[in-house]
Amino acid sequence: MSDFELSVRANRAASCKFRDADAYQYATREAVARMVREHNPKRVILLVHGFSSKPDRTERAYEHIERTWGANLTDDAVVGAYHWPSSLAYSGPVAYHAARRRAKEAGRRLAVLIDAISDKGIDVSIMGHSLGTVVMGHAAVCLTDNPHLYVNKWDKAVFQAGDARLSMYRADTEYGQAMRKLGIDVRNYYAKSDSVLQISKLTLNGKRIGRHALIQPGWDNADAQVMHGGRVRHTTYKKSEPILMDSLTFLQ
């Protein structure tokens, strides 16, 4: 599999690349330890991108989010970026389903990062966009299956433009049970005007890519279109100041 990249970014405090599980665990714990030495945060807010996010474009989006949050970010919090290989050389339904398979491995590695941060006694919030929310779900399952996890500090999650097939988060599913077992509060931003989640005619072997906006019972569901004050497209979430500021209020 392609490189995963972790950038624990508090003024670009630490970054590392890794190719295999052992190297990843070592690099992750080293990056977290370096972040703690330099910033001693009480909370880390992780950002997880979605499908077909090229590194340079993702980096610009993350920088915009941090500029928008600006002085509203508390002094004891840092922002981290979790990069995973969601962009493929081809496009369309085949690429999307391939990225969904990669999301499972990305979730496992995100779980290692959450575990490393929690082990330092630091609270964790995660904001994911689109397919990034699926990565978060896989991470939750991995954490509940981890016999060595003595403390979990992941307590807040923001979903933006959640993948339309997130029925996997129902309370009676493995993912729903994992989120509940970990005690994670979820704020879910949805928009019925999001055309990407309406492309129900695009299928691969009879599997739908999207149907409609995700509204999950038991979560704090927020209509992004009302909050934004206008039509919300699939990429609006990471650009809209009202949505981003509301997300930060929840995450902190």
Describe this structure in words.
The chain is of the alpha/beta class and about 250 residues long. The chain has one domain (about 5-250): Rossmann fold. Helices cover about 40% and strands about 20% of the residues. The strands form 2 sheets. Strands 2-1-4-3-5-6-7-10 form an 8-stranded mixed beta sheet, sandwiched between helices. The chain has a two-stranded antiparallel ribbon with strand order 8-9. The longest helix is centred in the middle third of the chain and has 27 residues, at about 95-120. The two termini are about 35 Å apart.
Residue runs with pLDDT of under 50 for 5 or more positions: 1-5, 7-19, 200-206
Overall 3D shape: globular
Would you tell me the structural class of the helices and strands?
alpha/beta
| pLDDT averaged over residues | 77
CATH level-3 fold name = Rossmann fold
The CATH architecture comes to 3-Layer(aba) Sandwich
How big a fraction of the residues is strand? 15-25%
Q: Let me know the largest β-sheet.
A: 8 strands, mixed
What is the quaternary state of this protein? single chain
Whole-number total of structural domains: 1
CATH class: Alpha Beta
SSE order, as H and E?
EEHEHEHEHEHEEEEHH
Q: How many beta-strand runs?
A: 10
Per DSSP, the total helix count is: 7
What helical percentage do the residues reach?
Answer: 25-40%
Radius of gyration: 17 Å
Give the N-terminus to C-terminus distance in angstroms: 34 Å
Placed side by side, the strands forming the largest sheet appear as 2-1-4-3-5-6-7-10
